[in-house]
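Annex B. Sample input.
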Amino acid sequence: MPYYPSNIFFNGIKIGPSGSTSSSNGLLLGNDASANLYRSAASTIKTDGSLIVTNHLSASTKSFLINHPTQEGKKLQYGVLEGPEHSVYIRGKVSHSNFIYIINFPDYWNKLVDLNSITVSLTPIKHSQNLLVKEVNSSGVIIAEENFKEINCYYHIFGERKDVPKIQVEI
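Annex B, continued. Sample output.
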């Protein structure tokens, strides 16, 4: 059986078995009075603060858990959208009296998104429209209504991140 020292202190932080905290029989990073991060005996890593991973994080499922906005004492858990790429999106609504409209990208998208990967979905509101994407450029997406009518639609624009390596889907 390997030997594990009972406590190691590194720059004033205790790294070792937990004491009286809820992480009993686990590994504590912090101090017994206020554990910041610990691994429980059930193999769950928990923190009461922020956790920053500067490299790759892999998981079978990913979700976020937030306080329920309308039901006191309850939580909402939403799953993270998954796909074969690291992508980002913007979405919104266009109501414009002109038959052509520019949906501007956030100013950081040129550095974040591969412009050649961008896809655009347009959903007409209230009545049928002949909507089309005229152009995608570094500042945004130009959409139009083919019959020169006003534009009233929702949009969803996806783009693959270029600041991180592509995902190897089948490994």
